Amino acid sequence: MNMLWLQASGCGGCTMSLLCAENPGVFDTLAGAGIKVLWHPALSVESGAQVRALLDQIIAGEVALDLFCVEGAIARGPRGTGRFQMLSGTGRSMMHWVQALAPHARHVVAVGSCAAFGGVTSAGDNPSDAVGLQYEGGHLGGLLPPGFRDPSGLPVINIAGCPTHPGWVLETLMLLASGEMRAEDLDGYARPRFFADHLVHHGCARNEFYEYKASARDLSERGCMMEHLGCIGTQAVGDCNIRPWNGSGSCTSGGYPCINCTAPEFENPRHAFTQTPKIAGIPVGLPTDMPKAWFMALASLSKAATPERLARNAVSDRIDVAPTLRKPRR
Fold this sequence. Notes:
There is one protein chain. By secondary structure, the chain is α/β, with parallel strands linked by helices. The chain contains ten helices and 13 strands. The termini are far apart.
């Protein structure tokens, strides 16, 4: 399987995250799956005329392109020309190259939320007119048309995240290489379900505080960050707390609220990321699948039943009260 990776409008953070793959590393994993990297702008030694010749050979059908990975949003400006981002030495825009290469690929993969939906690159007034490969925000129809499908019938596969998890990228590529990725393996935003069927809430180290609604009020505190600090891990898809970065890290375990970076338009929440918008004291964004009345009743009962240990530890930057020494009852 031949893989080509282009970096469009973005920060390169998904490549940096990919390099954090361990045991085995990126290159061992790809080699083991039979994936050959034709070119990656940050990791390959070829440049200039060599890369231009490779791109021309792919378009001419002389070199097979099995996996076409794009990192970063596609800048369509100014006025639809794409010339805000040129592929150096080619005289053509990145937008042109992606449009020209995608029809020749066996599979097209958007790596990260910028490539998938526009992401941070498209935030605010979006002066570069940046979009994702097949989505513009939460709507179908980015650079490629809504009906675009690869030869196997798959749409652009959106490995969302900002940055995306190295395990998500490698697992997706291995599934594609082995022919095991099908349309039913993707969710409604074409994200692989092996991570999108989970919530960030699953496995969160703060879940005991969440159960009793023992909430932190400042970022340095140990309590649940949903009520006051903007955490939406109960609504965000991703297995970040089940398989953390580098085996130990995630946003919530690092003391920062989940901002739902795997979702379209997460970059424009219309409030501070560390602020929970409320109406009449009730968070606007409730946990997935939970009716408001149930949440209010559960929260009221939970707060009334909060153990002193959790109430005190929730607003502390360390464990002030240890669990009671008691022989477990059987």
